[in-house]
Amino acid sequence: MSDMAKRLNQCRKPAGDTGKVVVEDMNESHFELTGWGLRKVNIQENSKILDIGCGGGRTINRLASLTPKGKVFGIDYSIDCVNWASDYNKDLVAQGKVEIYNATVEKLPFEDEKFDFVSAVETIYFWPDVVDNLKEIKRVLKPSGKILVINEIYKDEKFKDRNDEYVKMGNLKIYTPKEFEELFKKAGYRNVQIEIKEEKNWICSVAEK
């Protein structure tokens, strides 16, 4: 297996020494992408937020700075990521402003209508059943709560060769912008907005419960 394939495989469930390297790289490489997506939403200073697939924890840290009177929760199904993200945010965890759990998008460990906002950066590729998983997220959103999903890859002919290689090596599932929109609509979301950054092959969706 090539080094690139090993790294892409680690993106699904980072673990061990290689996973730590990949997660630290994600904290850096996803920063601009995440900022682009976050500019599409208006987070209130007292929001209660969930970050799904929190990886190395930098997005959690960023979200916490946007909601200084609120609280940010994170989940990841890699226990190593939970530990790394907790360490990255140790001061916020100690202050009670951040909580991070080992959990999956299939069964979120939260009560109904808990969150104002849910984010998922570079994770939807790996979800086992996207429509069902989006429904589970909708369960924990408050009425009119919003979800933001950000990906740095979508189906596009200009990037086909590169993306096909990523899909093969990393066992990813990617979508066209139209397919992306339909997934949210099938899960029962309203006001679905899809935006792309065509020159970078980035895509994000904002949808409302």
TrEMBL record:
<protein>
    <submittedName>
        <fullName>Methyltransferase type 11</fullName>
    </submittedName>
</protein>
<dbReference type="GO" id="GO:0008757">
    <property type="term" value="F:S-adenosylmethionine-dependent methyltransferase activity"/>
</dbReference>
<comment type="pathway">
    <text>Lipid metabolism.</text>
</comment>
<feature type="domain" description="Methyltransferase type 11">
    <location>
        <begin position="50"/>
        <end position="148"/>
    </location>
</feature>
<dbReference type="Pfam" id="PF08241">
    <property type="entry name" value="Methyltransf_11"/>
</dbReference>
<dbReference type="InterPro" id="IPR013216">
    <property type="entry name" value="Methyltransf_11"/>
</dbReference>
<keyword id="KW-0489">Methyltransferase</keyword>
<dbReference type="InterPro" id="IPR029063">
    <property type="entry name" value="SAM-dependent_MTases_sf"/>
</dbReference>
<keyword id="KW-0808">Transferase</keyword>
<dbReference type="GO" id="GO:0032259">
    <property type="term" value="P:methylation"/>
</dbReference>
<comment type="pathway">
    <text>Phospholipid metabolism.</text>
</comment>
